Amino acid sequence: MSVVLDGLRRWPDVEAPGLVAVDAADRLILDESAALRADADAGSIVVIGDAYGALTLGAAYAGAFGIRVHVDALNGERALAANAERAGLEETYRPFALDPDLVRGARVVLLRLPRSLDALRDIAGLVAAHADPGVVVVAGGRLKHMSLSMNDVLREFFGRLDVTRARQKSRVLVAREPHDGRDPEPAAAHIDGLEVRAFGGAFAGARLDIGTRLLLESLPSELTGGTADDPFIDLACGTGIVGAWLATRHPDAHVYACDQSAIAVTSAHATMLANGIGNRVDVVRDDGLSARHSASASLIALNPPFHSGAAVTDVLAPRLFVDAARVLRPGGQLWCVWNSALKYRPLLERAVGPTQQVARNAKFTVTVSTRRRG
């Protein structure tokens, strides 16, 4: 197994010192589940939250086949595929959405614990509702990201919960006897005239975070673009608040919203439908703007992420700035909100063009960058 795990990469996700493709929690989950997996039939093992393929490929290398896998981040899903191809294990698993088909009849579920309790509640409820009654969930994570509240969430849906000894600052929770299962339902909120929907784990949940609020307050009433061929773009859209705001404030506008998180895209779809604007807003799961043509947009709005999995990093935003610059038409604008401590303005100047500060509060800065001509 170490042969496979030691060769894992994060690519095409960011690769940098301190950012790893496999950690002690992955290895502990595999060790604690080894006997269960050895007795499991083909197609009865499910993996959820596998960052870059450690759980899936570790299980596959040990002989598992027909593994059903859900990875929320598109880059993680692509990294799993690349790692599987290098290891010759690409036929051992299939990707699924976070829906009943993922877990239907499952006997063993390997789960990297999400940091969001709401996300854990959605996953646990789904497993309890559709997995085999004898299912065993082996859920693990790093101690610094775990809390006793996770135990409480699992006990909402499982009659027995065992806690393993910690190893290398990691721990595993083993859940059995499912009950009271349910399919995920989005949280709902009415915010400043918008209906917002958020499944567990979506950034900010069903609320308007202070950075995005400052961005919306700063956008001018008159904007260039918004046609079918030149839509307003909500990059890294999360629950779709910015895209929905643009579509409702500009009743004839077309909007393109994208995010690499499956949870975010599902939430944004629900937000658009709740506001009756689904026919004018395309919501797409994408790594940045890879699906968009160059020089095809006049306006992009962005609240850049700063997490890669559980790791905090400042290398994600620069990649999005470069992608936005490629997609903007000459003279087009990138409206961006960012934590003032990150000092992104020089990066925006280099990647996009002349950048002006539009607004600033105690924590966040809003800038507008104009794409250079020529």
UniProtKB/TrEMBL annotation:
<protein>
    <submittedName>
        <fullName>Methyltransferase</fullName>
    </submittedName>
</protein>
<dbReference type="InterPro" id="IPR029063">
    <property type="entry name" value="SAM-dependent_MTases_sf"/>
</dbReference>
<dbReference type="Pfam" id="PF05175">
    <property type="entry name" value="MTS"/>
</dbReference>
<dbReference type="InterPro" id="IPR046977">
    <property type="entry name" value="RsmC/RlmG"/>
</dbReference>
<dbReference type="GO" id="GO:0008168">
    <property type="term" value="F:methyltransferase activity"/>
</dbReference>
<keyword id="KW-0489">Methyltransferase</keyword>
<dbReference type="InterPro" id="IPR058679">
    <property type="entry name" value="RlmG_N"/>
</dbReference>
<feature type="domain" description="Methyltransferase small">
    <location>
        <begin position="195"/>
        <end position="367"/>
    </location>
</feature>
<dbReference type="Pfam" id="PF26049">
    <property type="entry name" value="RLMG_N"/>
</dbReference>
<dbReference type="InterPro" id="IPR007848">
    <property type="entry name" value="Small_mtfrase_dom"/>
</dbReference>
<dbReference type="GO" id="GO:0032259">
    <property type="term" value="P:methylation"/>
</dbReference>
<feature type="domain" description="RlmG N-terminal">
    <location>
        <begin position="8"/>
        <end position="176"/>
    </location>
</feature>
<keyword id="KW-0808">Transferase</keyword>
